[in-house]
Amino acid sequence: MKIFRVVKRGYYISYAILENNMVIRLDEDPVKALIRYSENKEVLGDKVVGLDYESLLKNFKVNDVRITKPLDPLEVWGSGISYEMARERYSEENVARILGKTIYETVYDAVRPEIFFKATSNRCVGHGEAIAVRSDSEWTLPEPELAVVLDSNGKILGYTIMDDVSARDLEAENPLYLPQSKIYAGCCAFGPFIVTPDEVKNPYNLDIKLRILREGKVFYEGSVNTSKMRRKIEEQIEYLIRDNPIPDGTILTTGTAIVPGRDKGLKHGDIVEISISNLGTLITPVIKLERKK
Ligand code: DO4
Ligand code: MG
């Protein structure tokens, strides 16, 4: 099952796409529907005929209906340095060190993973909605990642595409600035769907692709397969929920291995496209925030 959500005249409407492309209008909150489906493969709702969701995905808005993020997570968490590539994070910069190794090399080799608070729903956007570059950042990058939607016990209810947008200059300046690099308005995009585990047979064999488009041309592209993930999702979840209560519908994003570099920072007007096998394509325009006087 895939869940997506639209906004029509200010109201959210949730839909599920079942086998054979049958679309159901959900009678309940998408997180409750995911829990119900995980328990007995059922959803509550009525069959819908003629909803052209493919056209909504392509055009973002059709008449007075627009697609939006598939649920409203109370909490979004991130895990980092989970791919070997991320071990080199800022290797060209003057990075903080512990006993001779950079903090990124240290955490890559450590038993404990990096887990950080990323966002609340009001800081997240969905397919077709704008991610943001902070007003005080000159180097912000998308981080295309596989994310999991969890229940309060850490069970995986679904998978989605997430962009852990990060002000990399702030983080590079001082690791204590990580929360400011990671958490701000428009710092996170996810969707267009939540896809249930029965449709994602092997989360460790998914292609993640990133494209940044500038003035209609491909400005950057990169890809990785999740088979390269060194810090497994189960381990990330175990540390996330250790002594830390999470609400149903929490999202955990599992780290990036695609790093566009210093000269590829996002600019106002860019378009970021992230595709993951089985999960679809998440497309978001970029805006630069203006400092409020
Ligand atoms: O410590 C920095 C954040 C790491 C991260 O977001 C990632 O590896 O994806
Ligand atoms: Mg990340």
On the 0 to 100 scale, the average pLDDT is 95
Give me the number of helical elements. 6
- Poorly predicted ranges (pLDDT <50, ≥5 residues)? none
Distance between the termini: 46 Å
Second rung of CATH, namely the architecture of the largest domain: Alpha-Beta Complex
CATH homology superfamily name of the largest domain = Fumarylacetoacetase-like, C-terminal domain
Main sheet overview: 13 strands, mixed
The total number of structural domains is: 2
**Radius of gyration using CA atoms only:** 19 Å
CATH class of the largest domain: Alpha Beta
Number of E-type strands = 22
Q: Beta fraction of the residues?
A: 35-45%
Bound molecules: 2,5-dioxopentanoic acid, magnesium ion
Fraction of helical residues? 10-25%
Q: What form results from the Cα inertia axes?
A: globular
Return the structural class: alpha+beta
- Helix and strand pattern: EEEHEHEEEEEHEEEEEEEHHEEEHEEE
The CATH topology of the largest domain: Fumarylacetoacetate hydrolase, domain 2
